[in-house]
Amino acid sequence: VQLQASGGGLVQAGGSLRLSCAASGRTFSMFVMGWFRQAPGKEREFVASISRGGSNTNYADSVKGRFTISRDNAKKTLYLQMSSLKPEDTAVYYCAQGTGQTIYSYDYDSWGQGTLVTVSS
Questions:
Q1: Residues 67 and 7 sit within 8 Å (Cβ to Cβ)
Q2: Could you read off the pLDDT of 60-106 as tens digits, one per residue?
C-alpha cells in the first residue's frame, strides 16, 4: 500500500487548509484511517481518525471543533479540513492506515510520507 499526503503549506493564524491522502494498493474501504502530526522536537501525536465507512470519527481535544476528517472510498482518498489554525498546529502531518480505530500510532501499519503545515502568527 502507498499513502501520498498533500495539501500542506504556509498559512496565517486563523486560516484554513485541506490535506489529502491518496491511497493505492490494498482495498481502501477495508481499513480505518487516521491523521497524526509531529511538531519539531516533539513526539508524533494523534489528530483524528475515521472508521471504514466514515460514520465514526474521533478527534484529539486540541483540534476538536476546528478540524474535520472525512474520506471518499470511491476515490480512495482521506481528507483533513483544518480551520481556525493556530501556530501550535505547525507540524508535519501524516496519514495512516490500520485495522483499529485508536489514538495509538502502533495500531496503524501503513504511513504516508507527511506534509508540512506551517501556521504563522
A1: no
A2: 999 999 999 999 999 999 999 999 999 999 999 999 999 989 999 99
Sequence letter at residue 75: K
Element (H, E) at 108: strand 108-111
pLDDT in tens, 26-44: 789 999 999 999 999 999 9
Provide the grid cell at 61.
Answer: 481535544
Strand partners, 80: 19, 69
The three cell numbers of residue 44 are 508524533
Comparing CA positions, the residue from 58, 65, 60, 56 lying closest to residue 83 is 65
Instruction: Give me the pLDDT at residue 25, please.
Output: 83
Cell 489529502: give the residue: 20
- The three-point CA angle 88-89-92 to 5° equals 120
Q: Which residues of 9-36 are buried (b: 16+ CB within 10 A; e: fewer)?
A: eebeeeeebebbbbbeeeebeebbbbbb
